[in-house]
Amino acid sequence: MPWNKVCALIFVLVAPLVVAQQTLKVDVNLVNVFITAQDENGTFITDLARQDFKVYEDDEPKDIAIFEKQGDVQTVLSVLMDISGSMVDILPHMNRGVRDFAKSITFPDEYSVITFGTGVRLIHRTPQTPQHLEQALNSLRTSGTSVLFDAMLYGMDRVNASDNERKALIVFTDGIDNGSTTSYGRISREAQLSGIVCYFVAIGSPVLVDKYTVESLSKTTGGRTFYVPKAEAVTPYLDRIRTELSKQYYLGYYAPKRPGYHRIRVEVPSRKNIQIYTRPGYLGS
Questions:
Q1: Can you tell me the distance from the alpha carbon of 159 to that of 120, in angstroms, rounded to the nearest whole number?
Q2: Global pTM?
Q3: Which has the closest alpha carbon to 152: 169, 140, 165?
């Protein structure tokens, strides 16, 4: 057979495979699901295997393509500190909590500390030294309004830039935003698109907290909201967040790329009296 005809035959055979691969890349999405499993006493369950989990999207069962446990997954997170005028009595509690929490972060996990009041500022990030963090915290002063949503968007951009699989925000706030150009709707959308888990720590009287903002964002992302009285130490709550992140399971499944909201349901049929915490769904693009 002449060489030009051989080349033409090869093209005919190979081209459909290339097109199929390109179509697969475009039309299929890897959905990441981070799961916390606890018994009725709140004790973390860490001995589950891939076959113990059943995952559904919009009530359709999905094959688990990726399964990793606890220490196999690397974390990147941003700690956001509200330093608006309403936080004047709260700042010392936040500072102590962030100092203690930073000591628990070890490589390859990453973190950054971001403040927000009338503006947003990155004050510390790994691998900067503990001394740098100490100096940055000591220089903080409270004043002005709160651009909570602008700060959350900035924090999301930072964690999304990392290759670490597990991404989270820890936000010290009363949930009140009175100066952002970013809307609540955009924050909710960005969190669901990226799979970032949001934890909120509200120090002081719960009466002064915008509960709708903090609880709705934590629920839709699979996180938690903690209300901390000023008389109590913040560190135990941050330890709880750190422990929860370190005990999570990471499941991934492939689904067609489709716009709109898609519900996620995770079950563990082999175990009774087990509580599963994860995000309830995601936004497709």
A1: 15
A2: 0.86
A3: 169
Structure tokens at 12: 């005919």
Q: Are 202 and 209 in contact (CB under 8 A)?
A: yes
254-272 pLDDT per residue, tens: 999 999 999 999 999 999 8
Indicate the residue type of 198. C
What span, in angstroms and rounded, lies between the C-alpha atoms of 119 and 194? 24
In the 3-class helix/strand/coil scheme, how is the chain assigned residue by residue?
Answer: CCHHHHHHHHHHHHHHHHHHHHHHHHHEEEEEEEEEEEECCCCECCCCCHHHCEEEECCEEECCCEEEEHHHCCEEEEEEEECCHHHCCCHHHHHHHHHHHHCCCCCCCEEEEEEECCCEEEEEECCCCHHHHHHHHHCCCCCCCCCHHHHHHHHHHHHHCCCCCEEEEEEECCCCCCCCCCCHHHHHHHHHHHCCEEEEEEECCHHHCCHHHHHHHHHHHCCCEEEECCCCCCHHHHHHHHHHHHCCEEEEEEEECCCEEEEEEEECCCCCCEEEECCCEEEEC
Residue in this structure with the two tokens 């915490």, named with its chain if needed: 277
Query: What's the whole-number average pLDDT of the chain?
Result: 89
pLDDT tens-place string over residues 133-169: 999 999 999 999 999 999 999 999 999 999 998 999 9
Say how far apart CA 274 and CA 262 lie, in whole Å: 24
Cross-sheet strand order for the sheet of 110-116:
120-125, 110-116, 75-82, 166-172, 197-203, 225-228
Question: Do the bridges between strand 60-62 and strand 54-57 make them parallel or antiparallel, or are there none, so unpaired?
Answer: antiparallel
